[in-house]
Specification:
This protein is mostly helical. The protein contains four helices and no strands.
Length: about 100
């Protein structure tokens, strides 16, 4: 059985790879930009690990990636809390499972 992960994991890994490349280009001066970049990378890694280990089902869509890229670990904490409260889950009925009476 093959698991379909979609484009979310690939997009997440691409963003992390680009951020790691930028880290090595930036001087290690410890400035604000460097701190924000580290926070973003740690946020991406944490959301991926929390989703993989605990199976929360947080999607890796563009809005989530932008939110984590801007706010880092704070965004991950907010996304986890919202997910545990049931906000953001899609409970749409499957279009193929209509009542056939």
């Amino acid at each position: 059985m093959e698991k379909n992960t979609g484009y979310g994991v690939g997009l997440l890994l691409t963003v992390i790879l680009i951020a790691l490349i930028v880290i090595f280009i930036l001087p290690l001066s410890g400035g604000l930009l460097y701190t924000l970049l580290i926070n973003t990378i740690v946020g991406f890694i944490v959301i991926f690990l929390v989703n993989a280990i605990f199976g929360l089902g947080i999607r890796y869509d563009l809005l989530v990636l932008i939110f984590v890229a801007i706010f880092g670990l704070l965004a991950v904490a907010i996304l986890i809390i919202l997910n545990l409260l049931g906000i953001g889950r899609t409970n749409r009925p499957n279009r193929h499972s209509r009542n056939q009476n």
